[in-house]
Amino acid sequence: MIDPVTFEVLRHRLSTVAEEGAAVLRNVSGSPSVAQSNDCNVALLTADGEGVVIGRTISSHAMSCIQTAKYVLKEYRDNPGFGPDDMFFSNHPYIGTPHQPCGVLVAPVYWEGRLVAWAGAGIHFGDVGGTVPGQVSIGARSIWSEAIPVPPIKLVERGTLRRDLEDEFLTRTRTRVQNAVDLKAMIGANNTIKNRIVELIRRYGRETITEALHQVIDVSEAKLRAILQQIPDGRWTCANYLDYYDENRMKTYTCRLALIKEGNQLLFDFTGSSKQAPAVVNATYAATEGYLLRAMLGLFGFAVSHCPAAIQRVMRIKAELGTIVHCAWPAGVCKGTTSVTQGVWQAATYCLSQMLLGSEKYRARAMAVSRGHLLILDVLGQDQYGLPFVAVLQDCCQAAGSAAGVAANGIDTGGIPEPEVSIPNVEGNEFRYPILYLYRRQEADSGGPGKFRGGVGLSMAFMPHDVPEISDMMLHTHGVTFPSALGLSGGYPGSLNRITIKRETNIQALFQGGTMPRSLSQIRGREELPPPFTHTSLKAGSIVECVGGGGGGYGDPLERAPEAVAGDVVNGLVSEAAARTQYGVVIDSERGVDRDATGREQATIKTQRQSLARNPAHRLQPGGETGGEKRVARINEYLTMAHGPEGPTICCRCGLTLCAASEHYKEYLAVRELVGHAGVGTPDGTESVPSFTLKEFYCPRCWTLVETEVFVAHTEA
To answer: Bridge partners of 566?
Structure first.
């Protein structure tokens, strides 16, 4: 063991090595999605491929490095072999990356002829080939109709970039120049990490650095296991739905997760998830593992920092081959980072937070689900400089609303809980691409209502600029028919995504008259709601508006402080109408909160809950209205498990005993079902889309909203 002082010095130094590698990766690439949105990452691994530390951007890129390095160690050690200054490139989803547009480069680190570590860098490419431009092969029926993946190849040999293999990869792409630069960026990042590790070895010795790499993992694992040991064991479930427009109809796939905690071990069981789709939206096992890691880092990063191996050691995955979360070759996966993988992350976040709510010590770490399924557009064609371009516009998803927590609102347009993920500046996108933004702003009422509100999402509108036409705009968007940014402990989910196109507009006349419109309603033109998966084009004067969802809320909205609601109204985050209907808060334009009217409005809402809700499925047992037993553990904000005279029971905070702890408590709650239906466009304008049911569960005595649940009746098998 290394002495504690030296270990702390080295632990922090290894973290800064990763940070320096990530900075090189971003700066050399220069593309807006990498340099400004940070759609990339790096990894430092042990000699056997365990992840010691990763960068602070999108963790799935780093997981791809880990999985690819382990594949090279297992399959290529003898043939073709590897040595100092070699690097292997891959974008193979069945080996490591979530989908083909994500590429990784891994490099062994040697000292005096001995393998001591691995460096890795991952990046998102705008285009890697395939039958259609961009990253998503809409309509594909297998991986053969998507971009063909590259298994690990020795792209750099003895320090030299192999021109034959570089050309083989670049010939596939429509964005050859940027992809070539991105390859150089990954080489630069790996060389930076390698050089810094060699410097540390020269100073401290090989044995000390090798031990430090393993000790970082061991210490992080011990801390994580100690935390899990203090949390009550249990089983928590979640169903997450994915809407996918394919073959001229909306299909729904379900990711079902049961999280089982026993002692200091976690099992993520996906039994019951939908069978795999033919293509596009599936997740490989590698992708599912990577997005479980994202969920764990978001909630337990305070203990393990950015050490993925510590998390991998405490979790097991059960997923049936041939399902949407563990697809079998040759199922297509070209939307692997932004489809069912998001459902995996959302379901895991929800279940892990439910688990944390059971611990008095760690319940403050629980949070609802940040942002729902992703709203993304690929804009392609010839730019204002006469050159081909591909722009992946992720504004509405990377700056979606963050989730509310046990004692705090979600961050407005805060994105996902990864420290360094952002969106490009408007001016940067306008300089790089032939587009002009009309507005980009926070969207009122998009955050899930709750005692603590979910962060609001982002909306934007843009048009072609300085070109007669954008020849190809590809929409590949989920979350338009039912919400997936789930609320917690009675909080509501975040809002749906929405895309609108207005063609043949009078926008130029408005500009000439000195008017900058603030909404589509101020602009005349032919309006359409496009299918969420489609190719289209934009002529000059056409406008696209995108509205992204917010984060899930926490707790019963009627318990939100009226002054906080009024502040949200003043700041344009909640409308006066939503303040009244969702929170029961009445705003007087001159005096602020009208307390008398607010009291009456909230009493009316409670009365409506009683009159509109269905009685519990099971009758309460005689004597069940005299709670007050000693609490054993929490279920959520309002329900607890307590010792009763005949064994453990589940009680509401108002003192009502609902049922025995062995029973399903939701069957003893009053429930109200609200049917939601989103109007999503189709080519002929006649296709219906699935509706969803939002279930609200109330305590049948105090009528507190204790849980919400999104339910979709019909799904793809």
So the answer is: none
Shared domain check, 402 and 505: yes
What are the pLDDT digits (tens) for 646-705? 889 999 999 999 999 999 999 999 999 998 765 555 555 444 566 789 999 999 999 999
**What's residue 114's pLDDT?**
97
**Looking at the domain assignment, is residue 315 inside a domain?**
no
Is-contact 75 67, C-beta < 8 A?
A: no
Q: What token pair was written down for 266?
A: 């976690």
- Which residue range(s) make up the domain with 584? 557-612
d(CA 713, CA 691): 8
Which pLDDT does position 691 carry in this prediction? Answer: 77
d(CA 519, CA 182): 37
Of 223, 242, 257, which closes a domain? 223
Q: Are 490 and 450 in contact (CB under 8 A)?
A: yes
CA 238/CA 714 separation, integer angstroms: 16
User: Collapsing DSSP states into helix, strand and coil, what is residue 4?
Assistant: helix
Token pair 């979350």 is at which residue?
A: 479
Q: Are residues 482 and 564 located together in one domain of the fold?
A: no
C-alpha span between 190 and 183 (Å, rounded)? 11
Looking at residue 323, the DSSP 8-state letter turns out to be B
The model's pLDDT over 494-544, given as tens digits with 9 standing for 90+, comes to 999 999 999 999 999 999 999 999 999 999 999 999 999 999 999 999 999
Q: What's the CA gap between 450 and 453, in Å, rounded?
A: 5
Please state the separation of Cα 69 from the chain's center in Å.
Answer: 25
Residue 678: C-alpha distances to residues 36, 482, 497, 545, 581 (Å): 33, 7, 10, 17, 20
What's the CA gap between 174 and 336, in Å, rounded?
20
* pLDDT, tens digit, 9 for 90 and up, residues 11-38: 999 999 999 999 999 999 998 889 888 9
As a whole number of angstroms, the distance between CA 427 and CA 402 comes to 25
pTM higher than 0.90, yes or no? yes
* Helix (H/G/I), strand (E/B), else coil: 96: coil
pLDDT recorded at residue 686: 46
